[in-house]
Amino acid sequence: MTYKYVIIDADEVDLVDFSQVAEHSAQSLRYSIDLTKTFVKYTGEQPSFLAGKTEYDNAGIINILRNDTEWAE
Q1: How many whole angstroms separate alpha carbon 11 and alpha carbon 59?
Q2: Is 35 left (phi over 0), alpha (psi -120 to 50) or beta?
Q3: Is 47 exposed, middle or buried (0-12, 13-18, 19+ CB in 10 A)?
Q4: Edge-to-edge, what's the strand order for the sheet holding 4-9?
Q5: 63 CB contacts (<8 Å, ≥6 apart)?
Q6: Which pTM value belongs to this model?
């Protein structure tokens, strides 16, 4: 199973349809250090509530989480 990932603003979490992503609830999401961003993962087509957002593969999201100062210190 190959996941796709999309970073969203924390204030968009209320728009997430958790039946269409791998996470179960807002409490299961990983947030950026300043708590302003999070991400969801899914398989298949991009859910409509994520339309227009940049999609990352596994290598892309790992690179961001390890190297971007918003996520890693």
Answers
A1: 26
A2: left
A3: middle
A4: 37-42, 4-9, 55-56
A5: none
A6: 0.92
At 13-64, the pLDDT tens digits run 999 999 999 999 999 999 999 999 999 999 999 999 999 999 999 999 999 9
Chain mean position to CA 42: 9
Say if residue 11 is exposed, middle or buried (CB neighbours under 10 Å; 0-12, 13-18, 19+): exposed
For residue 4, how many other CB atoms are within 10 A of its CB? Answer: 20
Per DSSP, helices labelled H in 1-73 are 58-67
Dist. CA 46–CA 55, nearest whole Å: 8
67, two tokens: 């190297």
Q: Which amino acid is at 43?
A: T
